[in-house]
Amino acid sequence: MRVCFVFAFLCILSCQGDTEALKKEYGLGKVEFAKGNLDGAKKHFQKIISEDTSFEDVPLYLAKIDFYKGNFEKASKDLSELIEDDTYGYQAYLLKVKADYAYRKDRSVLLKEVGEALKKDSSNLDLLIIAAKLHEELGQLPQTILYYGRVINESDKVLLAHKELKKIYEKAGIEERVKYHTRKIELWEEEKIKGKKK
User: What SUPFAM superfamilies does the database record attribute to this sequence (predicted)?
Assistant: First the structure.
């Protein structure tokens, strides 16, 4: 009995050690990813996957790495397997649509997928732009205009958000954030002026 208890205790300690090592590796991978060192991040994430295929969102990170390295077809395939995940399935789906667009998937099929995604998130700028581009490629000018109009409507909301955040940060006295939002507003205004001159 005592031997079984000691064995079970050692197994638990061993598992905790493995989990801690995976957590450390995960943290290192995320840091490398954030720095843009995709190869370094991939090494850390692959170490984790070799021990635990479903650790945190490592499969999603690996698919993102393929996407950012231009391996769109592989990224799309890997993302397809992650779509049903309750935690990051929608994020995987959005990135899959982008990957499919980049590797020139059948445009009519992709347009249907984008339409389904827009039913879930009708204000997603990336999806709206992809929808506009797909309609344009398919020679559907009225729909192209409609979708680009929706992009502009959503973009106007972004400008409003910058203006409101600037006010909030002014009240809070956080000057660095005030400057950030002021610059975003100025850039927006400059673009508007350039657009009018054309």
Answer: TPR-like
